[in-house]
Amino acid sequence: MAEPFVIEIYGPEGIGKTYTGLSFPNPVMIDTEGRGRYLCALLQKRPPFRVREWQDLREAAARILSEVPPPATVVIDSASDLQDMASLQWARENGVSTAQRPNYSAVYRMIDAALDFWTDNGYHLVLLERVKPEYDPVAESYTGRMVPNRYGRVSAKTHVVLELQWGLVIEGVQVLPDRYPVAVVRKNVWLPMGATKPYLLRFCYPEVIRQLQQPWKGTVHDYLEEAKEVLREMEATAALMAQRVRQLSQEPVA
After folding, report:
1. pTM of the entire predicted model
2. Which of 61, 152, 157, 158 is least surrounded by Cβ atoms within 10 Å, i.e. has the fewest?
3. C-alpha angle 208/212/217, rounded to 5°?
4. What CATH number did the domain enclosing 207 receive?
């Protein structure tokens, strides 16, 4: 992909969002959760930039622009923290209590500008998000569904949205057991949803791009055949990761 693109990936903890994000071209991670250093080392990627507040984000942007060789993809893990960080910064800059309801229009403009900064400078952008229980304000109760924990306008910026879930059942057929992750395609700007492959069993780059730019006319049988290959690949990957974990455990701590 020559032109910058924005992909949003959300799902439960431990399902592989960070691993997926780091598969994109020459990535650098902006780490708001403090858990990225080990995984970056495990996957032999450049160290992440630890970000705790909005000013850290600004400083990370300046440092990333000067990186040699330059990264091609910025991975924000987790983009779920952007609204809280921007709200706190807005309160500081406007001299109001953090307990006061922020001006969300101003907060959203701050986040919009931060995200646009990356694509305007030619970087791909991967937004990784946690999920939260969905609340129905009319019924004043939770629905039982999990939804992305995102800031309000992010969907307008994305080219692709993937929801990661455990396992896959199609037409009553168990395609993948519940211990294996699957990507549900929620948005694809390259093809209408009716022509888009609805589930991705392989969802690392460049498989995401390749599959979402080709019309899908497959069946459950096609998914079952693909699942056999994917299970073999996952077993091989797990073995390689186990070997890398053993290597890391023997390396001195920096």
Report:
1. 0.93
2. 152
3. 125
4. 3.40.50
What is the residue whose two structure tokens read 């807005």? 90
State how many domains the chain has.
1
How far is 49 from 65, CA to CA, in rounded Å?
A: 12
Q: 182 in helix, strand or coil?
A: strand
- 17/162 Cα distance (integer angstroms): 10
For 64-98, how does the pLDDT look when each residue is reduced to its tens digit (9 = 90+)? 999 988 999 999 999 999 999 999 999 999 999 98
Residue 117's domain comprises 6-250
**DSSP string across 191-206:** S-GGGS-SEES--STT
Residue 1 lies in a domain: no
- Going along the chain, which residue ranges are E strands? 6-10, 27-31, 49-50, 73-77, 124-129, 131-136, 141-148, 160-170, 173-188, 199-200
Q: Quick one: how far is CA 41 from the chain centroid?
A: 18
Q: Where are the alpha helices (DSSP H) in 49-165?
A: 54-65, 82-93, 104-120
